[in-house]
Amino acid sequence: MRWGAVTNIEVTGLRGSIQGWEKAINAGGFVADGTLGVANPLVNPPVPLVSGVQTTYRYRAVVQNGTCAPVYSPVATVVVNPIPPQPTISPSGATTFCDGGSVTLTSSNVGGLAASFRWYRNGVFTGTTTSSIVVNTTALSGSYTVEALGVAPTACPSPLSDPVVVTINPLPTATVSGGGSVCSGTPAPDIVWTFTGTPPFDFTITVTPGVPINVTGHNAMTYTIVAPNPPVNTTYTLTSLVDNNSCPGTSLGGAAAVNIQSTPSNGGKLYGSTGSVR
Question: Quick one: CATH architecture of 173-261?
Fold first, then answer.
């Protein structure tokens, strides 16, 4: 039974009457306890924990039938297990970070009373029963609580801990479209980068040949180079991307190129022959 629970102890097949009850605590011997009365069953005997740890109570009735010598009933044993106190959660580091990182949440075990644990995310049991849980993917973001369970067979549950919220932000990404092959002097199709993540974004586009394009505080989910018209073959590559969560992008979409095709010359000569037709 758990601490605070109650039980009745009854002697069955009784011949005679109960003269009193005796009690033994843990490894101690039996001692008559007049506060227990002579009732059968013995209703809700007090079973407080001793020193806050698992405590074993043994009870027996003193039975007498007429003038016969008193005898003892079989012993009834009550084991009282403590309820672990409310645990606290200690994170190993920051609880808000970018995908690719992790945090370990560890439950306290005050007094060593917990034999196992139950971890919950958003109120749903995660399946983890150890004292720690590792949170390391965006899908595992959420509000974490833990309860401590006492020793078997009762496994008395503690009150739930206060929650710890873990937020794992996804990394921003980019894809690119546009550019292509054009005749000299003809603008190419717009080059458009499309972003995922949390704006505003800071990013750099490397232009080869040319100078990089550095953009900060970009609030839109796209960025466009309109009608690029470079004088020579040129590539445009997004080489860095950071969103508002300070998460760096690793999938940036590759390069967009504008390839200049030479224009055919019209300065050639046309050769032929003359003659008559009859």
Answer: Single Sheet (2.20)
